[in-house]
Write a structure and sequence with these properties.
Elements lengths: L1 H47 L5 E4 L10 E10 L5 E13 L2 E10 L4 E8 L14 H5 L9 E3 L7 E3 L5 H20 L4
Parallel strand pairs: 6-7
Antiparallel strand pairs: 1-2, 2-3, 3-4, 4-5
Length: 189
């Protein structure tokens, strides 16, 4: 009986020490992690609107759907204060490996100014993870509502699918298409 009590006390002490160390580590790293995430988001907004002088918080027709979560929405303003469009941070849960976070820029005329994928860490290495490559993301620029993808070579308002990663391509393209539809349906407001 004494051995059980002794082992219980030892395990309790180990658990308390480990929990305290974990809490201290979290407290120390919480702010730097948040700052790094905010910086990555700012860089993504600039990547989709490099000509923007500033970004202002905005609202608009953007809303969550079954597989899409809308995060930050920013109005991109030029050097003279002219409105260039809107940048929307979204996360889709429809990726092959789960969530894919991205920022989509939409010009005032309703076309995509750019796409920056922030994370797709659970997509298949060498397949779906290729969505992080600039050549995949760059093909969204200039596309408009009604966007689709093709496995046999893109034409017009289509995206060329990543070979062997149709689910990832579909997830990203559907997210961009949904944001474009929301923008068009809300008259960009």
């Amino acid at each position: 009986m004494k051995q059980i009590v002794k082992n219980t006390i030892v395990l309790l002490v180990i658990t308390l020490v480990a929990g305290s160390l974990l809490a201290a580590t979290y407290a120390i790293t919480k702010n730097p992690i948040k700052q790094a995430e905010e910086q990555a988001e700012k860089e993504a907004f600039l990547a989709v609107f490099p000509e923007a002088a500033e970004f202002q918080d905005a609202e608009g027709p953007f809303h969550d759907t079954d597989s899409l979560t809308v995060g930050s929405v920013k109005r991109a303003k030029g050097t003279n204060g002219e409105e260039l469009g809107v940048a929307v941070k979204v996360t889709t849960s429809a990726g092959y490996g789960g969530d894919i976070a991205m920022v989509i820029g939409i010009k005032a005329d309703g076309t995509v100014s750019g796409l920056k994928i922030l994370s797709a860490s659970n997509e298949s290495p060498g397949l779906g993870a290729n969505c992080l490559k600039p050549e995949f993301q760059e093909q969204y620029a200039g596309k408009k509502a009604g966007l689709t993808y093709s496995k046999t070579g893109a034409e017009g308002n289509e995206i060329d699918a990543i070979s062997g990663a149709t689910i990832t391509t579909r997830a990203v393209t559907s997210a961009v298409a949904a944001v474009l539809d929301m923008y068009e349906g809300g008259d960009g407001q």
